[in-house]
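TA notes, week 10

Several of you asked for a full example with nothing omitted. So below is the full record: structure tokens for the whole chain, then the designed sequence directly under it. When grading your own attempts, check the secondary structure regions first.
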């Protein structure tokens, strides 16, 4: 019975150690999710990286087409848009706080947003 109790205690301690809250990052998940504060966005084949970012009022955000990219555009729901292009950059300066969703009109599901605070 004593050995069984020891093994149970050992298993509980191992499980508890695995639940530690170190705050570190685990795995190698996608990098194009929210939480970014970048003013640089890569236009890749069928995605924006990061797909959403938060910047201060007055910031200029630059979208840069990756080498070998197919033709994409950056089109905002409030009107401004880039040219349809496979290389180069597009910039937009955000002077008013708010949420600015955008997408590539060539590729459904290729979306992003800029939150300006």
């Amino acid at each position: 019975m004593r050995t069984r109790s020891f093994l149970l205690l050992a298993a509980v301690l191992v499980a508890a150690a695995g639940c530690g809250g170190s705050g570190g990052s685990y795995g190698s998940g996608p990098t194009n999710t929210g939480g970014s504060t970048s003013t640089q966005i890569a236009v890749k084949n069928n995605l924006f990286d990061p797909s959403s970012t938060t910047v201060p009022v007055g910031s200029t955000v630059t979208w840069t087409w990756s080498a070998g990219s197919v033709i994409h555009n950056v089109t905002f729901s409030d009107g401004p848009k880039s040219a349809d292009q496979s290389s180069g950059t597009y910039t937009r300066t955000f002077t008013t706080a708010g949420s600015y969703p955008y997408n590539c009109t060539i590729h459904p599901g290729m979306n992003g947003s800029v939150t300006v605070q």
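The chain has a mean pLDDT of 79. Use that as a sanity check on your answer.
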